[in-house]
Structures are given as C-alpha cells and as structure tokens.
Fold:
Amino acid sequence: MGFFIETFIGGLMVGMLYALIALGFVLIYKASGVFNFAQGAMVLFAALAMARFAEWVPKWTGIDNPWFANIAGFVLAGALMFVVAWLIERLVLRHLVNQEGATLLMATLGITYFMDGLGQTLFGSNIYRIEIGMPKDPMFVLESLFQGGVLINKEDVIAAVIAAALVALLSLFFQKTGTGRALRAVADDHQAAQSIGIPLARIWVIVWCVAGTVALVAGMIWGSKLGVQFSLATVALRALPVVILGGLTSVPGAIIGGLIIGVGEKLSEVYLGPYVGGGIEIWFAYVLALVFLLFRPQGLFGEKIIDRV
Structure:
C-alpha cells in the first residue's frame, strides 16, 4: 500500500506540472480560438532567457549572489516575454483578426519556428542549468502508517506547490476580475466583444503576456529538473493529451486532465509495464487522448460546439 501511495503522489506532482503547461494552451485558445502550437517554443525560449540572464547578471552588476541572480534573471526573462507577446500581437495577430482558425493555427506554427531560431541565436544552443535552490534530496513521510514510510522527492513537492499556486491565481483572475471576464467574452465571440467596446488587440496582448508568464514558470521548473536544452520544447507535447482530456476551453479541465494523465502514466508504468515490456509511460497519455477524441472530443469539461446551418 505504501508503494502505491508513493507512486500515486509522484503522479500527482508530475500531473500538476503537465497542467501548468496545458494552461498556456487553454489561455490562448480561450482568447483567440486557436490552438497555440508555439507554447512549447515559448517554454523553451523563456527557460533559455532566464538561465542566461541569471548567468549574465553577476557579470553586469558585480554582485555574486545566486538568489539575486535568479530573481533578476526571472524578472528580465518575464519582461522579455512581455515584449515578445506585444510583438506577436502587433506584427502577427492584429492582421489576422476574425480570420479562419486554420489561418491562426499556421501563424502559431510560424511563431514556433521563429522563436526556436531566435532563442538559439540570442542565448546559444548549449545545455544550461537553472539553479533556483530547490532541494534535490528525497524525504520519507507517513512512517508511522507504513513500514519504511513513503518516499517523496522534495523538488517535486516544491514544483507542484508552485504550479498549483499559479493555476489557482489564474483561475481567480478569470473568474473574479473585469479583465478575466473580458477574456471570456472575447473567447465566446470576437465580433460581439468588439461591438460592446472590448478592445480585442489589448485583450490578446494580455492573454499572450499571461501565457508567456506561465511558460516562464513552467520553463523554470522543468529547466531546474531536466536542464535547459532544445528538447525541452517537446515537454509541451506531453501537455497535448492533457488539453484534449480536460477540454480546450476549460481551466479546471487542464488541472484535472493533468492530474489524471500524471497519475495514469505512473501507475500504468509500474503495474502494467512489467507485463508488456515497459514503455507504457511514453504512450499512455496519447492513447487515452485518442479514446477521448473518438467518444468525447470536447473533453471532460469542454463545451460541446453546435453549429446551426
């Protein structure tokens, strides 16, 4: 029982990180109605920016303090992501208002390749580390209930708490603020939102800035765990099944979907992997997403779209 709980908790923590990345997809889709394939590139770009800024700040300022370097690197990377978001809206999205979804989708693919190349040009293509002081050593809990206790990685706990806090703040932002309600109105109908005075361009800038912040936090956490390298962009692909499972338009769906995928991957690998030769963790999420696409394409919490003809 102790081993099952250990595996279950590990899955929850990984699932929360998946949910954080999936949230970026959901935010863009809610505001523009397009699936943002650039989210993975944004995670990588933000992680590269923070890693390199944290490395350069001590050289610029002469202050050799890791905490100062990391905070300054995070702030500078956040400012850069805001500039990137503004440029994307100004140079790309503004000219594609009320266009077909396929047109916007192709635009995000173009943004993906541009940001991949720009990140490599500005920050280099080496493997970098983000050291934000998260402890790497494991700890044992519930020792009084289970023999030997339950092994938990402290870094995973802190990462999951950070992800959960950001997800909760964004949920409150969407539900309780005027800007959040305007974002939801734009998501429902661009033209109707414009007709009542909601500035579409400003809303798109805000939502891309928020998605950039989400990408920065996700990149910081994954960069601390795995190192900042160009394969980090593929981590976002692990969030695609989460979005399909939870629903493209649902913030709570991204959270629940991430937890289901995280737990399902861990449990299936541990308990079913030995019978099929392993590797279930790699394809489990995609098979589950395929099942949902066949039987419930809108996901668990997504809105069912009905077109009248």
